[in-house]
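sorry for the late reply, my laptop died twice this morning and i had to redo everyting from scratch. anyway the thing you sent over, i finally got around to it. pasting the sequence first so we're on the same page, its 323 residues, then the predicted structure underneath. double check i copied it right bc i was rushing
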Amino acid sequence: MPHLADSVFRINQNQTAGVTFILLGFSEYPDLQVPLFLVFLTIYTVSMLGNLGMIAIIRLNPKLHTPMYFFLSHLSFVDFCYSSVVTPKLLEILLVEDRSISFSGCITQFFFACTCVITETFMLAAMAYDRFVAVCNPLLYTVAISQKLCCLLVAASYTWGIACTLVVTYFMLTLNYCETKVINNFVCEHSAVIAVSCSDPYISQLSLVIVTIFNQISSLGIVFTSYVFIFVTVMRMPSTAGRYKAFSTCASHLTAIAIFHGPILFLYCLPTTKSSWLLVEIASVFYTVVIPMLNPLIYSLRNKDVKQAARRLIISQLYCHKS
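ok and here's the structure:
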């Protein structure tokens, strides 16, 4: 692995020196540049406040120091990092005429964005397992989902995200990139970057498809299996109120999974043609800008504990200021 990491980050100077990418973004809509800037700035602000607020609420409230909220705090952290990697550059190219990004800057953006996506994929799978134990084995919950296991699952998600991204980035770096190239996107997304390479991108495309399909099948397999057992257990409950409570604890997580996996399956598991670049760009906006904003809203609006903790935190802060 150290040799692979060295290869990934050792940029061939003869091939990449002076290479600059131009991010087209939404330049084909000049009249929409300012409105789009304001929209994305608003989304970014809400995303930052929402995710940082979620982390703060969970850390400051002892009642939320449970496995579910431990995973949720890391999910918010990943969303915060993801949005911070992508959105500032998007805002920049909407505001200034210079849409260039260096080769190293583009690869760095892709590396961190891809790491966040894969990490979030398995963070959601870990949360599905947590819900499975909570609903199906509530008496053994504190034993089965120990603090040590939570830390291992979170660490494994981050480690696997980095490892997969190293592999994909390595094959991107084996391609030749000559002079200035125009990327038909606002972000250094894989298919858009390799489309402007001077060499055959087949192996690089294949590596990403294999990694993505494996991650999607394995993570969704965990999610599907967990919720099959949850559904069977809930339907056996004699009380309607009990069934409603059990389903309500899973509703936020299921919503987050639904809005997260759809765009990724569309972007990386389906063939991309020239006529579909607009759809690729729309999907890219959704999963790089919108999803990091939606997750904290989903979990806060549908979660009584989070709303109560946020209300208490706000009231305590106001009381401190008045004092």
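The mean pLDDT is 83.
thats about all i looked at so far, will dig more tmrw
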